[in-house]
Amino acid sequence: TANRHLLLPKTCPPDPKWEFPRERLTIEQVLGEGEFGRVLRAKAIDIGGIAGATTVAVKTLKENACASELADLLSEYQLLKEAQHPNVIRLLGACTTPGAPVYLIIEFAEFGSLRNYLRRSRHLESGIRSDGCSSLSNVIVCEAEGTRPVYTVTPRDILSFAWQISKGMAYLADIKLVHRDLAARNVLLAAEKVCKISDFGLTRDVYEDDAYLKRSKGRVPVKWMAPESLADHVYTSKSDVWSFGVLLWELVTLGASPYPGVDVHNLYNLLKAGYRMERPANCSQQLYKLMTSCWHQEPGMRPSFKELVNHWEKMLEDSV
Ligand code: ADE
């Protein structure tokens, strides 16, 4: 039946602490859309303790979504309520009253997804690099030109992004929250280049591209998944660390697609045989070593996010 998704299950009573009146929300435009989900930009009046209008992002379902997608959205709602960290996207409220679509209201990140930001920064690259040095120092440097926004990414930004994401993930690991879908497309970039981990409700269809393999149990981000997740559906903070290793590779390549040319159906066997992505052109030996340590076959041998935070802090100190 149409509009099945509009109905809330009886198991989800409204939460007065987070419920936001729909009439104080004005939808402005679509920011992103997947098969079943949609993210909108909106203005909210008097939200999150701020008087007047605030730009927010609103996560909702499309008309073709059904009960399982609604369950995913509500599970993300529950998880977001608990997560409070500067590098994790913040929940501001929700509209769950019956008779209208469910809305999760989340903080707006003005630069959008980190993957898109990295890719947009690429066209600025030409003519600036080419000193041929094999460290991060030739990733890119670029100056603002004119008035249109310029998506700069300096070598220090790359380290800072890795540091911030590790801090957010260390926090999530601390509160026993396993992300399961850590990737550059699921990290948002807010003002001052602050990274915000997002999309941890397994509502994994909202963004671009072909990163997800369609399976009976939803879409699977094979190229970011640890071998134990691929083989046995085991997800832990250590499998999140594996995904973080792939995210590092995305950072260094400015948003390239991992395992280029590898068919997702062959990936598990390749990984089991010890195959790993090679060192990207602009990646230092030190960074590559960290990346590959995240891809240890044995989950217990991978670094923790806390240890990774310490590595980035050392590297940031050394690079001043
Ligand atoms: N796209 C998806 N979620 C977003 C958010 N919270 N802010 C900006 N763009 C987004």
Give me the secondary-structure topology:
Layout (H helix, E strand, L loop, with lengths): L24 E9 L3 E11 L2 E12 L5 H16 L8 E5 L7 E5 L6 H7 L34 H20 L12 E4 L3 E4 L15 E3 L2 E3 L6 H6 L4 H16 L11 H9 L12 H10 L10 H14 L2
Antiparallel strand pairs: 1-2, 2-3, 3-5, 4-5, 6-7, 8-9
The site of adenine has 10 residues, from strand 1.
Summarize this structure as a short list of keywords or feature phrases.
binds adenine; 9 strands; 5-stranded antiparallel beta sheet; 320 residues; alpha+beta; 8 helices
Can you walk through the features of this model?
The strands form three sheets. Strands 1-2-3-5-4 form a five-stranded antiparallel sheet. A two-stranded antiparallel ribbon has the order 6-7. Residues 1-6, 126-144 and 203-209 have low confidence and may be disordered. The termini are far apart. The protein has helices spanning 67-82, 114-120, 155-174, 227-232, 237-252, 264-272, 285-294, 305-318, and strands spanning 25-33, 37-47, 50-61, 91-95, 103-107, 187-190, 194-197, 213-215, 218-220. The longest helix has 20 residues, at 155-174. It has 320 residues and is α+β, with helices and mostly antiparallel strands. The chain is 31% helix and 18% strand. The structure holds adenine. Adenine is lined by residues 31-32, 39, 57, 89, 106, 108-109, 112, 188.
